[in-house]
Amino acid sequence: MKVVKNMEALLPLSIDQMISNSENTIASKAICTTDHTDIRFFSYAKGESISKEFQEEDSIIYVFQGKLKILYRRDEEKILSAGEMIVLPSNVEYGVEVLEDAKSLNILVK
Question: Pfam families from the entry (predicted)?
C-alpha cells in the first residue's frame, strides 16, 4: 500500500479495534498522512483536553464512541456523541474537551 499504514490490506477490522482507550491520556494512530490528507484514529480519556489551535486543513471529526465537546472560534461549542460528526473549516481555531472516554476518526484535508 502506498499511503495507508497501520492496517492490513483486505482484512476486515472492527472500527473499535483500531485504537485502545488509555487512562489519563489522549492517543492517536495515523492511518494516512500525505501532503493533502491526514487520517487518524483518536482515543480520549475522560477529563482530558486539547487546547484550541488553528488547522490549515478542513477537519471532519466522527465520534464513534463516548462524548466530546468541540470548542471553536471565540466561545462557541458543540457536544458530539457516538454516531455524530462535525466539519470544521480550515483556519477556524478549535479544541476538544473529553466528557466521556471516547474514540474518534479525524480526517484533515487541504
Answer: Cupin_2
